[in-house]
Amino acid sequence: MTSEVVAEDGGFVNPAGRDQLLRTDPAVFGEFPGALGITTTELGDRHGCFELTVRPEFRSHFGIQHGGVVAALIDHSLGSVLLPHVEPGTWPATLEFKMNFLAPVREGVVRATATILARRRSVAVVRIDVENAGRAVAAAQGTVSFQSARGSSHSGVGGPGATP
């Protein structure tokens, strides 16, 4: 018997992996989010909050944070908010997202709040709102497909091979 329970929306909730998610564990996420300094600050049933602090090497020659860093935060948030809802042995793969930049970021903490809008057996739609210093700086919506981890070293959150 595994630690998952089937949620009302048909998704899988995996409470065994929640600690790994809150620690932004490289065993789950790989090294990229850590290199950017992305942290998980909150993870609820249908939402999550993810942050990074602007660093000098993230700024363009205009003194604003490079848009690619915001896009990476959005992509990370898009998949990570779904991790408690996937079966061990699967992972959420971003199919697409559409992003709008609303204001430049120069310093401080950038916070992405991801909300699951719809979750089906094989796909989900997530909205991500990004803010900095109390103002909206980007908005995105994306679609994720749930993929089997067969043939890869990733075995899902809380699944075989996952670290405690």
TrEMBL record:
Domain of life: Bacteria
One Pfam family here: 4HBT
Alphabetic keyword roster: Hydrolase
Gene3D superfamilies per record: Hotdog Thioesterase (3.10.129.10)
Record's keyword annotation contains Hydrolase: yes
Record domain Thioesterase: where: 62-138
EC category name: hydrolase
Alphabetical list of InterPro entries matching this protein: HotDog_dom_sf (IPR029069), PAAI_dom (IPR003736), Thioestr_dom (IPR006683)
Enzyme Commission identifier(s): 3.1.2.20
Any one GO MF annotation of this record: hydrolase activity
Catalysis performed (reactions): a fatty acyl-CoA + H2O = a fatty acid + CoA + H(+); a medium-chain fatty acyl-CoA + H2O = a medium-chain fatty acid + CoA + H(+); a long-chain fatty acyl-CoA + H2O = a long-chain fatty acid + CoA + H(+)
UniProt cross-references to NCBIfam families, sorted A to Z: unchar_dom_1
Similarity field: Belongs to the YigI thioesterase family.
Protein name (record): Medium/long-chain acyl-CoA thioesterase YigI
Species of origin: Amycolatopsis samaneae
